[in-house]
Specification:
Shape of chain A: globular
Shape of chain B: globular
Strand content of chain B: 5-15%
Helix content of chain B: 10-25%
Number of helices of chain A: 13
Strand content of chain A: 5-15%
Radius of gyration of chain B: 15 Å
Largest sheet of chain B: 2 strands, antiparallel
Oligomer: heterodimer
Radius of gyration of chain A: 19 Å
Helix content of chain A: 40-55%
Distance between the termini of chain A: 22 Å
Chain lengths: 357, 114
């Protein structure tokens, strides 16, 4: 983690001056859009792609070296991807990330075993598995479009908690997408998560994304509804006592909820976005995006000999970076927001002062 | 066409859609993206799969660009197509080719609660 903090000045210069040229520390890999959920807030599952093979992924990961600290293996449903263990292991062996983060819909019965294999094969990385929970009971099933999903969620959580007792590098969390469909039921979700025995409870606001084919769909709560929900989430985090690294992550979480409130209210890029400098996304077919919301095609790794650097330090990305820096976009994407917050001095000062209290 | 509230078929009791926020910049931004050569084939195949596999997609509509060609302007406004019947974008005579700014949009069941 210290290595990440030491790289912040370099990223700030990179964004401002274009030098020094640095590879991203936060990378999302989407090996396949296939998914067995039918969520109201996501249409990625309808897509089919000419997916990178495992061998192609290995070449891409080799080109990144030790730059990435945080990998998210996303989907679709990432634990449905047949080579997910090999992909995680390859990322681990070639990049030695501090964190490998994987969301899951908790449907497949094989998930606990797959997760244990990932945790075993990446022993020096923290493996974070976040189970999606969008409601309690039938509300969850309705939003996720899968009858019986909530029951499977509960079974999967219990089994993963047992795996966690054997694998100290495993964190099991609950992740909720706050949308128009559940913003009024958030208290119920918080209460459930609190007594669930999960290590963490995180939320993200549902937002339109090019990746998910949800642009224009009425899924994002209005600013007023979300503000109430965020205040509730902040009170929840502040009511808990955390130790060690969790104190930092929870302090950042409070900042994130406040940031989203401001983004929805001001309709502006409230703090400088570092997507395209610090974070990036590699889609299933090898296309590199600065983020999954805009989904700008920065180039396909197949056309660049699987060398991420060719795209990252190439010409095409410069116009996209100019657009992001000119605040032509704004969004509350959590993955990018957390890395951007690390590069915002005011946010860091508030986090620091909270930790000193 | 999007309801600010109202019950939705198949939903649990006491359920309603709340007010929502649009990200207008993203809508405009996506219109400006250059289309892949297989945009129509790939998009319509996805919507076809979506309808077949019992998601909440009920069809596809064409969202014309503000400065679209005459042919796009003549398309029936707001018409929901089955993917097999939707016109191919870019339309055959569109002078903008892959820079055509018209888009497909999925139509979801919760946008049509009746």
């Amino acid at each position: 983690m210290l290595g990440v903090l030491l790289r912040i000045p370099a990223f700030k210069l990179f964004r401002r001056l274009g030098r020094p040229r640095v590879l991203p520390l936060n990378l999302t890999l989407s090996p396949s859009p296939k998914c067995n959920s039918r969520c109201l807030t996501c249409n990625i599952w309808i897509k089919r792609e000419n997916e990178l093979t495992l061998e192609e992924w290995r070449k891409v990961l080799a080109s990144l070296g030790r730059a990435p600290y945080w990998f998210t293996i996303s989907g679709g449903e990432p634990l449905m991807y047949p080579h997910v263990v090999d992909l995680a292991q390859s990322a681990y062996e070639q990049c030695r990330p501090g964190v490998i983060n994987i969301p899951t819909n908790a449907i497949l019965p094989s998930i606990p075993e797959t997760v244990e294999r990932i945790a075993r094969s990446c022993p020096q990385s923290q493996v974070i598995i976040n189970l999606s929970l969008d409601g309690v009971g039938e509300k969850h099933d309705f939003i996720r479009g899968v009858p019986g999903n909530f029951e499977k969620f509960e079974q999967c959580l219990e089994q993963l908690r047992a795996v966690r007792r054997r694998r100290k590098n495993l964190t099991v969390g609950i992740h909720s997408v706050v949308s128009v469909f559940n913003v009024d039921h958030l208290d119920e979700i918080i209460a459930y998560a609190d007594r669930s025995g999960a290590d963490q409870f995180i939320t993200e606001i549902a937002e339109p994304r090019v990746e998910l084919d949800t642009v224009g769909l009425p899924i994002t709560p209005d600013a007023e509804s979300y503000a109430k929900a965020a205040d509730r989430l902040i009170r929840y985090v502040q009511s808990k006592r955390f130790r060690g690294v969790s104190r930092i992550t929870e302090a950042l979480r409070v900042e994130y909820y406040k940031l989203v409130k401001r983004i929805l209210d001001e309709q502006d890029q409230v703090i400088a976005c570092y997507a395209g400098w610090v974070s990036a996304h590699i889609y299933a077919d090898g296309t590199v995006w600065p983020c999954c919301v805009r989904g700008d095609n920065l180039g396909n790794l197949r056309d660049h000999n699987y060398d991420f650097k060719e795209i990252w330090f190439g010409k095409k990305i410069q116009a996209v970076r100019s657009s992001i820096a000119a605040k032509e976009c704004h969004c509350p994407l959590a993955n990018a927001a957390y890395t951007s917050m690390l590069h915002d001095l005011a946010t860091l000062a508030r986090v620091g002062s909270r930790l000193l209290r | 066409m999007w309801p600010s509230s109202g019950n939705h078929k198949g939903c649990p009791d006491n359920y309603s859609l709340g007010k929502h926020m649009a990200f207008d910049w993203l809508d405009r931004f996506q219109h400006r993206l250059e289309k892949e050569p297989d945009y129509a084939r790939k998009s319509l195949a996805a919507y076809r799969l979506g309808m077949k596999a019992k998601g909440s997609i009920v069809g596809v509509m064409v969202q014309p660009a503000p400065e679209c060609c005459d042919a796009a302007r003549r398309l029936p406004a707001g018409k929901v197509y089955h993917p097999d019947q939707a016109p191919n974008l870019p339309l055959p005579d569109c002078p903008q080719g892959r820079h055509c700014q018209c888009l497909y949009r999925p139509v979801m069941s919760y946008q049509h609660p009746d």
